[in-house]
Design brief:
282 residues, alpha/beta, seven-stranded mixed beta sheet, two-stranded antiparallel sheet, 35% helix
Length: 282
């Protein structure tokens, strides 16, 4: 009954208002079924992620294809249903493999949205302590019963003397990524993953971008004038702060933008960036 109503009444109404009304069907529900094509998808994704892990200095799991195949099968059981916003299959897969490879005992997630990546991180690290931070949890579709939730910014939380040197922080919170790097370094974290990192000339294509991004503060050719772009009728301006750029560069040891995987899986492109910070104890 709902589908005819959507097609005949609600869809045309939303179209006249300038919107598209689409079912919230996760993209991973669209998938190959024949064995040969599934094998190609798994093999291709495993290869590209392994290349990125190695370039990032992260030990590549022995059975990469088996790990990707297990995720491909498990993602169908994810309780979060989303078509737009948050991560898709490719981003979720890369985050899963990165977390499994690093095996952190503490995970900090800043920007939870519907709860997809919390579910992914728990699948990757069943025993880890997960701390979830967001400005509001009204959009949650999945709440991890073992995670700790705080409706606040992560930078103001007291981690009670926890050693965060082996922790993993995942930032998908649309907050200045340079600020997040500095905050993480001050707290002793060294393993960071960012979503929505992009270069300055592509930032106009990102919804609600956090800026400056990792790529913007680490670019070889820093802007000599303000960077301006238009998004949904609103003009944004970024003026490079040399002191912030120097502070970030002093902390960063390794950066790796992971492959978007669209070419091998057909799913929406991922935009994950791994950042390793220098050990401040040395």
């Amino acid at each position: 009954m709902l589908e005819p109503l959507r097609r005949r009444v609600l869809g045309p109404l939303f179209t006249r208002l300038g919107y598209d009304l689409l079912p919230a069907v996760p993209e991973w529900e669209h998938r190959p079924l024949s064995r040969r094509e599934v094998d190609r998808l798994v093999r291709g994704a495993a290869h590209h992620i392994a290349v990125d892990l190695d370039a990032a200095g992260i030990a590549v799991p022995e059975d990469m294809e088996g790990l990707v195949r297990a995720f491909y099968e498990d993602i169908c059981q994810c309780p979060v249903r989303q078509k737009h916003g948050g991560n898709g299959f490719n981003g979720a897969l890369e985050l899963f493999v990165i977390a499994r490879a690093l095996a952190p005992d503490v995970i900090i997630e800043s920007g939870v949205f519907r709860g997809l990546t919390t579910w992914v991180l728990r699948k990757a690290c069943p025993e880890a302590r997960i701390f979830c931070f967001d400005a509001v949890f009204a959009n949650l579709q999945h709440r991890d019963p073992a995670a700790t939730y705080h409706e606040a910014d992560w930078s103001g939380y007291d981690f009670d003397g926890l050693d965060l040197s082996r922790a993993l922080a995942f930032f998908d919170d649309h907050i200045d990524q340079a600020r997040r790097i500095i905050e993480a370094g001050e707290r002793g974290l060294s393993q960071l993953v960012f979503d929505d990192n992009t270069a300055a000339h592509r930032i106009h294509a990102h919804g609600g971008p956090a800026f400056p991004t990792v790529d913007m503060v680490l670019a070889d050719d820093l802007p000599t004038e303000p960077v301006r772009w238009l998004r949904n009728g609103r003009e944004f301006v970024y003026e490079a702060d040399v002191s912030v750029i120097e502070a970030v560069r002093e902390r960063v040891e390794t950066v790796r933008n992971f492959d978007d995987l669209h070419g091998v899986t057909g799913y929406s492109p991922a935009r994950l960036t791994y950042v390793k910070l220098k050990d401040r104890r040395i």
